[in-house]
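Hello,

I think I submitted the adenosine-5'-diphosphate job twice by accident. Can you confirm which output corresponds to this input? Input:
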Amino acid sequence: MATLEIKDLHVTVEADNSTKEILKGVDLTVKQGETHAIMGPNGSGKSTLAYSVAGHPKYTITQGSVTLDGEDVLEMSVDERARAGMFLAMQYPVEVPGVSVSNFLRTSATAIRGEAPKLRTWVKEVKSAMEQLQMDPAFAERNVNEGFSGGEKKRHEILQMELLKPKIAILDETDSGLDVDALRQVSDGVNRVRATGEVGTLLITHYTRILRYIKPDFVHVFANGRIAESGGAELADKLEAEGYEAYTKGGASA
Ligand code: ADP
Ligand code: MG
Ligand code: MG
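Support: Only one job matched these inputs. Its output is below.
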């Protein structure tokens, strides 16, 4: 079983001509088959954690390590991370002009599997995954992220996850901007992938509502650039009732 291990991770960004430390020693282990939720106030550094693990050039790792089965993830290119079995939804936030969803997915699958999936089975797989996510078949022919609505972006993210079958998936704010029906469809998608037992998921969110549909095995409260508390699903209920105030007192998170 694959294990993602984040140890004492410190990360800085350059902003307004100064260097700001955003992550201040994050420790987290996610194993294949487990679902972890990271919850915390806006500005606490949740997305920075996701981007840092994804290898976004804007974020400088100043201390600590990220490994997948002992292999140094921080030394890997973005492609190598994907081939190693990591799915980082935020890797592809940009428009990809002239590349359809269908071609993009097949190219990604080819890169990850080391060979092109057989066209006929692949077309069936894509079709069935799209049906389950209640996506219009015409979506497959649209250019990646071009004019996608918030909900379409999130569905596309889950579609990729279903088809690419990662060992470790990091989903940042998968629930934001979704209406109740879309939230349920996207959650159902995550739960289908989860039911295979083959993926370890890190679900990053500000709101507790997605956790009504996806029951995490572990909940971590993120505040001021580190994990302030860890627990089971019951911790999410506590957060829903009490908010994050207890964790942000004296801190600088906005
Ligand atoms: P969260 O996802 O928890 O809302 P973020 O990781 O987005 O938090 O942001 C944490 C802090 O880091 C914020 O103060 C934010 O302004 C700052 N930050 C994050 N990314 C950048 C960036 N690329 N450039 C400048 N500041 C950033
Ligand atoms: Mg934010
Ligand atoms: Mg964020």
